[in-house]
Structures are given as structure tokens and as C-alpha cells.
Amino acid sequence: MTDHSLPQGLHPETLAVREAVERSQWGEHSEALYLASSFVQPNAETAARRFAGQEEGYTYSRTSNPTVTSFERRLAALEGTECAVATSTGMSAILLVALTALKTGDHVICSQSMFGSTIKLLGTEMARFGVETSFVSQTNIDEWKAAIRPNTRMLFAETPTNPLTDLCDIAALAEIAHAHGALLAVDNSFATPILQQPAKLGADVVVHSGTKFLDGQGRVMAGAVCGTVALVDKVMGTFLRSGGLNLAPFNAWVVMKGLETLALRVKAESASALELATWLEAHPKVARVYYPGLASHPQHALAMRQQNGMGGAVIAFDVIGQGAEQLRANAFHVVDSTQVCSITANLGDVKTTITHPASTSHGRLTEEQRQAAGIGQGLIRISVGLEHLDDLKADLSRGLDTLK
Ligand SMILES: *Cc1c(COP(=O)(O)O)cnc(C)c1O
């Protein structure tokens, strides 16, 4: 549905609060929430044209819903893509990409440091349908290049990674993918369009878990795929509408309202994270800090170039200690000494979250796999929220200062 009331050429900040389907006859200021599974047709002729796709108009919420359309248009405006389609979760967005971009006999390359469920979905579930997956280094572009085969259809990247904040160079991956007629898909859940717009760097498909920063207040699960009308709306959207991977209107409304404050939240969280990371790096009980905004990050220059000069909200750090057992005890002590931070593996929230990856998000890996991934027992991950920085420092000091 098109709304002609907005002028052309508006900036993303404006579109983040203004882009939506047109107001109803009641003139509501905040966007309406259309909790309706179906839509009444004015007459049989119109119904026939709408069902045949010859006329725009809502018929059934699995096909489209005005609240969902508003979220899709707003997110596409922020990502700078022609369109977006909304899905029930981030994983259903990745499933949608996998089921539409790949078929039996195809090959996909992705980083071994991607989100755990993505690795399971592509590497294990899709293998049952005859899709081959190669896992390569997040940071070594030559490994991606070397993994290309004649049947490679897609490169799938996620940057920065969870929890160690390793980056990959989106523009370089796009070049490799396109030289071989493959697609580049980028999971932008961590960075958000405020830090980077992968489509502008050459990505064909941009995937989101709306559950993280887009909602940003821990309320709903949501997902989306952004890109061109030809690929994302016509091919992926058609599958979505038949397959029922839809986002519910209520969740769409919540995450759409989240987009209104996304830029303010991400910039504030990123600024706090930089200060906190700098402070942690100087702390005697901290062995190492992983944060793209720090000059000590091996990919600091790439991060500043690719991420709009920002490091993002997520920090990981190793506490001091000797041997796995003591490292784990020390990390648990710091986590358990917090009184403000929430102990939860979720991220991207306005409430700061703290987690011990080796025993939670990466707990199912073998010790060997964890070591290869660089996720030690002393590692703690924080997703910085909007609390006062002094309160966060005090919260972490409680545990760090009492470490033996
Ligand atoms: C959380 C997350 C997902 C999965 O999203 P859900 O909404 O939980 O399904 C995918 N990718 C990344 C990077 C994530 O952080």
C-alpha cells in the first residue's frame, strides 16, 4: 500500500518515526494496531481483483496486514532497501532466506562464529535437504574465497559476532560473492542499520532478528528480510505468504514503535559501551577486552569505517585467573555480584544484560570447540543498556574488586 502524504527524499531519522501506512478515517496520531485476521471486501468484483493480485488491498493477514506493512516499510527505509518482509522471529527470517535462495545440490559458505541456531539450521537441518555448508573463519577473507565451489549460491555473514565482536568486511565479501554469481546475505541484528547498512556495501539480502535492538525493550520476538522487490518481495515474500512465517500484527506494532527510538538508543548504548570498555581495559582484574570501538581491537580500523564510527553496545571481556576452573569461578563471581545488570543471554535491550557464554549460549559446544572459538571460561559478555554509566561501573566493580 502506498501513502502519498510524505514528501520524497526524507532522511532515515524522519522516516523512522513517519513511514507507515496511511492513517485510518479516525486520524490516530500513533499508528493503529490492526488486530484482524481477515479484511472485509467492498464487493465481489474488488475481492476477485485483490485475490488475483490485480489490485492492492488487504484480504487476509497471512498475505498482508496494515500494521505489518508499516513495520516493513519503516525498516526498509532505515536499511535503505527497496522493501522488507517481516517474519515471526529472526530464525524464521533466516529459514526463509535458506528455503528460497537454496535448493538441493547448492552450497553455502558462512562463518564458523555465527549465531548458534544459524549454524545448526544451515549446517544440520538444511543438510537433510541436500544443501552443503562450509564454515570458514570470520576474519580471514581468503578462507571465504578458497571455499567457493561451482555450486556456491550464497555467502552468509554476521558482523560483528557474538560474543567476541569479530568483524568481517561486507564489501569484500560482496565482491567475492558477485564474482561467482552468488548472493551475499548479512545478518544485521547485532549492528542494526544505525551502525551499518549492508545493502549499501553490496549485500543482496539483509536479515534481522527484531527481538534484539529493533524492539530494544525485550517485549516481543520478530524478524525481517530486506532487499530488492524482485528478490525479497516477489520470491521470498511469495514463499512467506504461502508458508505462513508471518509476524503477528501485535508484535509488528511493538517492534515498529521500537524503530522510532532505535537511533537514539543505539548511539547512546554505543557511547556508554565505549566508555565502559575503556574503563574495563584499565581494570587490574580484567585480562582482555573485546570491543570494536577500542584501538586494541584487531579490526578497529574496519569497524570505524564499516560501522559509522561506532563500536556498538556489546562488550566481551576475560577476567583474570589461572586454569579453567578458577576462570569460571571468577567469572561467576563477577556475574553474581551484579545487582543492576540482568543475568540473561538476551541482548540489545535498554536494560544492561550480562552473561557467561561458555556455560549458556555456547554451553553445548565441546571444550575443544569452545577453545577454537576463543570462548574461555573467564569470558563475560555485556550488552550495554541505558542505565547511568557510574551505576554500571559500580555494579561490575562489586565483583571485580573482590576477585582474589
Ligand atoms: C537472536 C539472533 C538471531 C535469532 O533471532 P530470534 O529472533 O531469536 O529468532 C539471529 N541472529 C542473531 C545475530 C541473533 O542475535
TrEMBL record:
Gene Ontology MF terms in the entry: carbon-sulfur lyase activity; pyridoxal phosphate binding; transferase activity, transferring alkyl or aryl (other than methyl) groups
Which reaction is catalysed here? Answer: O-succinyl-L-homoserine + hydrogen sulfide = L-homocysteine + succinate
User: Keyword set for this entry?
Assistant: Amino-acid biosynthesis, Methionine biosynthesis, Pyridoxal phosphate, Transferase
* Biological pathway: Amino-acid biosynthesis; L-methionine biosynthesis via de novo pathway; L-homocysteine from O-succinyl-L-homoserine: step 1/1
The coenzyme or cofactor needed here is: pyridoxal 5'-phosphate
Position of the signal peptide: none
- Cite a GO CC annotation: cytoplasm
Quote the InterPro entries the UniProt record gives: Cys/Met-Metab_PyrdxlP-dep_enz (IPR000277), Cys_met_metab_PP (IPR054542), O-succ-hSer_sulfhydrylase (IPR006234), PyrdxlP-dep_Trfase (IPR015424), PyrdxlP-dep_Trfase_major (IPR015421), PyrdxlP-dep_Trfase_small (IPR015422)
EC number(s) reported in the record = 2.5.1.-
Enzyme class of the recorded protein, top EC level: transferase
For biological process, the GO terms are: 'de novo' L-methionine biosynthetic process; homocysteine biosynthetic process; transsulfuration
Task: Read off the Pfam families from this record.
Answer: Cys_Met_Meta_PP
Task: Spell out which residues are annotated as carrying N6-(pyridoxal phosphate)lysine.
Answer: 212
Q: Which NCBIfam families match?
A: O_suc_HS_sulf (TIGR01325), PRK08133.1 (NF006003)
Instruction: Give the similarity note.
Output: Belongs to the trans-sulfuration enzymes family. MetZ subfamily.
- Assembly behavior: Homotetramer.
Matching entries from HAMAP family are given as: MetZ
Free-text function comment from the UniProt entry: Catalyzes the formation of L-homocysteine from O-succinyl-L-homoserine (OSHS) and hydrogen sulfide.
**By what name is this protein known?**
O-succinylhomoserine sulfhydrylase
Give the source species: Comamonas terrigena
